[in-house]
Every structure is written in C-alpha cells, then in structure tokens.
Specification:
Strand content: 15-25%
CATH architecture: Alpha-Beta Barrel
Distance between the termini: 38 Å
Shape: globular
Bound molecules: zinc ion
Number of helices: 10
Helix content: 40-55%
CATH class: Alpha Beta
Structural class: alpha/beta
CATH superfamily: Homocysteine-binding-like domain
Largest sheet: 7 strands, parallel
CATH topology: TIM Barrel
Radius of gyration: 18 Å
Length: about 270
C-alpha cells in the first residue's frame, strides 16, 4: 500500500506490472536479515485469480519466483507462498474440493522449479488446507509449511470454521507436512500464548509463526496497523522461548519489524 497499491487491486498482478517494486521489496527483506522470503503470490492460485478475471496464473507465479531468485543470497531461501482461494465449500459456499485442488495445483506447478519449500498460509478451513496440501504434494516432494489462521476464543484458539489447533495439527502430521504453524488474524501479543499451544500440541514437529503487527485500526475507511517494531520484536522475544523454528511477520509488518526481530533471534541463539 505504501508503494502505491490501490485498495481493491490484486497485489499479485504487480509481479507482471511493476516487477522493479517487487524486486525492491524482496531485497529489503533479505537485507533486513530474513533467511526465508516468500514469493508475492498469496492470491495467485487458479480460483482466486480467475475470480478477478485473470488467466495469467503460470506467468504471475513464475515471474514472482524468478524476481525473488534474482535477489536471493546464497545462504538464504525462497519460499513459494500459497494463500486460500477466497471461496468456501458447502454449506458456506459453492466451491468444490476438486476445483480448489486444481486451482492450487496450477500454482504449485508454476512455482516448483524455483522454490525451496512452500508456505500454505492464512487458511481458516482445514478441508481447503487439505486440498492445497494434496495439490502441492501432487507436484512436489519439497517441504510444506502449513499455517492456519486462528482467533482467540474463551476455550482456546480456533479458526473461523471452528477447527482447533489440535485438529489441524493432527491432520497435518497424518498428511506428512514438514512444519506446522499459524499466521495472521492475531497480533504478536496473542501469539505468545498461541505459540505455547502449538508447541504443546505438536512437540516433535518444527513450528512456524507469523503474527500481525497488533490489531488494526480503522482510519478513513482503511485498516491501519500501528504497532511499533520494538513492541512487535519484544513480544516475539517471548515467542522464541517456545522453541519455534520459523518466525516472521504478517499483516502490518514491514522490514523494520523484521530487522529488530532478526536481532532478537540472534540474541536468542547466542543465549542458548
Ligand atoms: Zn496477515
């Protein structure tokens, strides 16, 4: 948004329209100390793109991966980013599992040549996540990070579709996912507790967390995240104590948050 993306525009299209800006952003994250940077393809699956009337699924995914590869340092990795379709299965919506799976598979096929692993993130329906995991597995033997997005309820953490952390992570283990995780919806403070739950539910599998920069505030019809990078990094310092293996930032975070987080990670590693 800061760089001129208009409300309602699909960011994924920027890979084709303004590749120089995408490249600049990728570089910024590696310079901030990221070991893993994701392709700008969160909505570049077949279902989501076609809903916007866009057919260039292969081109968008390949281009983003190529740009990322061109700036990826030797000691870092590029991750294929896959988000939900935006459609829902019955009874909430009319999508079919086959359509969703095919939509994800087209995307994975386009990314496969370039990425080291896949991050399937911000899913709120376990059924859809399963379709995405199956789709990626049909195209690839590379590691999969599976992150659901949870809300905090009095009885614990659940997706809006009612899936608990335990249900999701049990399913992920059955499906042979390499890393289980959570991202988005909640801010860094709630992720302290969520990381503890993730760790206790799945003690033997690597964990990934990507909180938002606090909770957004509505300003002039637009959601704005105002959390300071210092506060974000300070919360994540506590998250690190639960032994998470992958940690990053979701909505509202930028390279300043990552820079400070990197410092906390380095301190944590030194202390151990
Ligand atoms: Zn997010």
């Amino acid at each position: 948004m800061r760089r001129g993306l208009e409300q309602g525009t699909l960011p994924d299209v920027w890979n084709l329209e303004t590749p120089e800006i995408i490249k600049e952003v990728f570089e910024e994250y590696y310079l901030a100390g990221s070991d893993l940077v994701q392709t700008a393809t969160f909505q570049a699956n077949g279902v989501a793109l076609r809903k916007h009337g866009i057919e260039k699924i292969k081109e968008i995914n390949e281009t983003s991966a190529k740009i990322l590869k061109s700036v990826c340092p030797e000691n870092a990795c590029l991750i294929g980013d896959i988000g939900p379709s935006g459609d829902f299965l019955p009874p909430v919506g009319k999508a079919s599992l086959d359509d969703l799976q095919n939509g994800f598979q087209v995307q994975a096929k386009a990314l496969e040549k370039y990425v080291a692993a896949y991050h399937l993130e911000t899913f709120s329906d376990l059924q859809e996540m399963k379709a995405a995991i199956t789709a990626v597995k049909n195209e690839s033997n590379k590691p999969i990070i599976a992150s659901m997005t949870y809300k905090k309820a009095p009885k614990g953490f659940f997706t809006v579709m009612g899936n608990s952390v335990q249900d999701c992570n049990e399913e992920f283990q059955t499906l042979g996912v390499s890393v289980v995780g959570a991202n988005c919806t909640l801010g860094s403070h709630d992720f302290i507790e969520l990381a503890e739950v993730l760790r206790s539910v799945t003690p033997d599998i690597p964990i990934s967390v990507k909180p938002n920069a606090g909770q957004p505030e509505l300003e002039g019809g637009v959601l704005v995240y105002k959390q300071k990078p210092e506060d974000f990094a300070n919360d994540l310092k506590q998250v690190l104590e639960y032994g998470v293996q992958i940690i990053g930032g979701c909505c509202g975070t930028n390279s300043s948050h990552i820079k400070l987080l990197r410092k906390e990670i380095d301190n944590y590693i030194q202390r151990r």
